[in-house]
Structure formats: structure tokens, C-alpha cells
Amino acid sequence: MKADKFLDAKGLACPMPIVKTKKAMDQMENGQILEIHATDKGAKNDLSAWAKSGGHELVDHNEENGVLKFYLKKG
């Protein structure tokens, strides 16, 4: 999936992946995709809930070699 912006949140513990995601999303246009890489296992639930509460869409997520990859579409 092609993302408009990339955020490296690897090695960060909660709540920093959410804090950095919010900051990145604030700089983006509606409909753009943010790709986030995280290693905190709690990020899956946190980012999903945060996206839903903020009117954004979790388009896709997967895990590769211990790295969680998320694709959020700005709402």
C-alpha cells in the first residue's frame, strides 16, 4: 500500500505512538494515508481505538519480523 507519509514509532512505549500519530495526522490532508511502524504490542488496540474515535480509518495492518505496520486514512 502506498502511503503519503511515514511514521517510525519503533521502540516507543504507550502512549508515544499515539502522540506521534496524532501530530503526524494533524499535518495531513483528509483522505491521505499515514504508514506507522511500531513495536509496542499494545499499539494494535490503541491505534485502532484512537482512529475510530478521531474519525479516521484503519485501512490495513500487518506484522513483519516483530514490527507492526499500520495504515491510517485521515478522516
Index terms:
Translation Initiation Factor IF3, alpha+beta, 75 residues, 35% strand, four-stranded mixed sheet
Can you describe this structure?
The protein has one domain (5-73): TusA-like domain (Translation Initiation Factor IF3, 2-Layer Sandwich), CATH 3.30.110.40. 29% of the residues lie in helices and 35% in strands. It is built from two helices and four strands; from the N terminus they run E-H-E-H-E-E. The chain has helices at residues 16-26, 43-53; strands spanning 5-9, 33-38, 57-64, 67-73. Helix 1 links the parallel strand 1 and strand 2 (33-38). The longest helix is centred in the first third of the chain and has 11 residues, at 16-26. The model has no long low-confidence stretch (mean pLDDT 96).
Number of spatially distinct domains: 1
The name CATH uses for the topology is Translation Initiation Factor IF3
- Rg, Å, rounded: 11 Å
Structural class: alpha+beta
What proportion of the residues form beta strands (DSSP E)? 25-35%
Mean pLDDT: 96
CATH architectural category = 2-Layer Sandwich
Question: What percent of the residues sit in helical stretches (DSSP H or I)?
Answer: 25-40%
- Main CATH class: Alpha Beta
Q: What is the CA-CA span between the terminal residues? A: 18 Å
Q: What's the number of extended β-strand segments? A: 4
Sheet with most strands: strand arrangement: 1-2-4-3
- Please identify the oligomeric state: single chain
Determine the number of helices (DSSP H or I, runs of at least 4 residues): 2
CATH-level-4 superfamily name: TusA-like domain
The largest β sheet comes out as: 4 strands, mixed
Protein name: UPF0033 domain-containing protein
Family: Belongs to the sulfur carrier protein TusA family.
Domain UPF0033: 7-31
Pfam family, one: TusA
